[in-house]
Design goal:
Layout (H helix, E strand, L loop, with lengths): L5 E8 L11 E4 L2 E9 L4 E14 L6 E16 L16 E4 L7 H10 L50
Length: about 170
């Protein structure tokens, strides 16, 4: 790893393959990468941010939701040495990532960050009513005729008791 390295990384990356086959991800825009890579005494620091526009399914009603996510990146890398494997327990709390070889591949770090920062349960609105549990009607658009009366399952047998006597 070279000393005094200073490099700016500005890229646009297609990450749609990371989410192929997922029904909750409708569409992803390109990932905008803006990173500053600086090399010091046996350590390379990567700082900056990633940003992406998503179209995701609402976690309640499944309607498309537009999201914009900005992901901060702050990582440090050092060259791996033969002794790193022996002293693994000592370096467990260390925030520096050991790198083998002469090249630093940021792609796995970037892909992992995008997957970790993906919105967990996007909502089309805070008051989204979701779907009817019986018929699947989107309750934001129309109400359905399904019974919403909740009966304690322990007492459900008693509800039919008086129907026979009438």
């Amino acid at each position: 790893m070279s000393k005094g390295l200073r490099e700016k990384v500005e890229e646009s990356i297609d990450v749609s393959a990371l989410f192929a086959g997922r029904s909750d991800v409708i569409r992803t825009g390109p990932l905008q990468v803006s990173l500053q890579v600086t090399g010091g005494e046996d350590v390379i620091a990567v700082d900056g941010e990633l940003s992406i526009d998503w179209e995701l399914a609402c976690s309640r009603c499944l309607e498309p939701v537009q999201e914009h996510t900005v992901i901060p990146i702050h990582e440090q890398f050092k060259p791996a040495s033969e002794s790193d494997g022996e002293n693994f327990e000592e370096d467990e709390d260390d925030d520096v990532i050991a790198v083998e070889g002469d090249k630093l591949d940021l792609k796995p770090i970037v892909e992992e960050a995008v997957q970790l920062f993906m919105p967990f349960a996007p909502l089309c609105s805070d008051d989204c009513k979701g779907l009817c549990h019986n018929c699947g009607q989107n309750l934001n658009e129309h109400t359905c005729g399904c019974k919403t009366e909740k009966i304690d399952p322990r007492l459900a047998v008693l509800k039919d008791l008086f129907k026979e006597e009438q």
